[in-house]
Amino acid sequence: MTAHHLLAADMRRLPSPWNDLTWERKSALEELAPTEATERAALEALTAALSGPSASPVPRVWSDESWELFDRIRNEAGYRLAHVMPTADRFTREGIADVLREWAGTAQPPVPAWWLEDQLDLIVGVLTDQALAGWAHDVLRWLQRKPYDEAGVAAAAERCVESGLAAHDAVNLLHVLGAPHGEQALLRVVQDDSASESSRSQARDALLSLRRPGYDARAQRPAQGEHALLPPAVRELPYSWGAGFQWPVELPESEENITRARAILQACAPPEPVPEPVPAPSWRGHEDEEPPAWLEVRQVMRELMPYARLVTEERMTEAMRECALLGIPGVPGDADSEEAARFVRRWVTWIGGWIAGEVFTWLGMYVDDDTLVTPWAMELAERYARFGFVTDQAVAMLRRHDTVPRSREALARLTADGTLSP
């Protein structure tokens, strides 16, 4: 009977230890000296593994019974599978089926034969994927030890990402390689629609790490001669974006600090209702919810503009181009387009909103003397809330000073206004 091999023909011809599918493979690879010859062998092994047909793009549909059965197979029959099929040339559909049928006959609780046969193709596919991914994990980790041909290693890792073969480990390897070859490959990965979103996101994280020294150097340069995008009073804020523009809790209720808070709130106060609310600076999504893309944009921006005085037109354009280079979704590719102008206006508004929100938080939580904030802070808080700009922080400040009649009056007016959101 013809055996149905599950791994590429070139991979089945690999010598030991490159054909090893057992748990002993990792220690066998660790014993190999990192030489140019062994590196070539590792790259040839990856090429062999990638020479087979691409995986089907059709997602596998798992039933509850499939998951239950697969978990039992992994825990109860995993060792037997590796023992019967220790090398790539012996890894076949028939071999898996024989082991699983033998196991099902003695399993406790028992596994009905019809159930196993009904799920067999699905389980064979997943076991094949896992065997290949585990093998690639160890080979890619071995290549991190002492790369000789960095361009060749980067090319192999990039192919793994494109093929979805141990993509997480492949991106890690590109990160370790760094500039120029690893970084260049990562820049291609983030723009590659065929790569998974998870791989692209991980590649962006790696690029942020690799490119951070350049961001830090840019942030150290003063903004002299650049076109500021925030009002003068806001640019004087000494607290960093990296700390969320938060005011220190131990800050005294001095005339200087109260004057600064008032000036910032007056400078950031909206002249009319804002078209969209400023997002909360701390995103809290559900466990299965993807973080919004603006979080990645913010990460780049605050690296390049860590203080309000550095929020300039020139740096905003640099940040936008960098975000586009990193493949962050929703970032305009043309810095001179109307879309780019809207992007900049939105982010200047958001930055001003986050700064103003922290001012309200400090005034509400850490300024105990009501006379220092009456009535100007109440008037500004009502205006902010009425125009939908950092409403939560503005209303929270009013509530924390609700012993003051002006605060209670502002809250009553806001509550009674049926045109405002709840």
Description:
The chain has helices at 9-12, 25-30, 36-49, 64-76, 78-84, 93-106, 113-143, 150-163, 167-177, 181-189, 197-220, 232-235, 255-268, 294-304, 313-325, 338-366, 376-386, 391-400, 405-416. With 422 residues, it is mainly alpha-helical. The protein is elongated and about 85 Å long. The N and C termini lie far apart (72 Å). The mean pLDDT is 92.
Identify low-pLDDT runs.
none
Radius of gyration using CA atoms only: 29 Å
- Give the termini distance in whole angstroms: 72 Å
Biggest sheet, in brief? none
Structural class assignment: mainly alpha
Helical residue percent band? 55-70%
Number of distinct beta strands: 0
Whole-number average pLDDT?
Answer: 92
Strand content of the residues, in percent? under 5%
One letter per element, helices H and strands E, the order comes to HHHHHHHHHHHHHHHHHHH
Structural shape: elongated
Determine the number of helices (DSSP H or I, runs of at least 4 residues): 19
Keywords for this structure?
single chain, 422 residues, mainly alpha, 19 helices, elongated
Could you give a short description of this structure?
It is built from 19 helices and no strands.
Could you give the topology of this structure?
Elements: H1 9-12, H2 25-30, H3 36-49, H4 64-76, H5 78-84, H6 93-106, H7 113-143, H8 150-163, H9 167-177, H10 181-189, H11 197-220, H12 232-235, H13 255-268, H14 294-304, H15 313-325, H16 338-366, H17 376-386, H18 391-400, H19 405-416
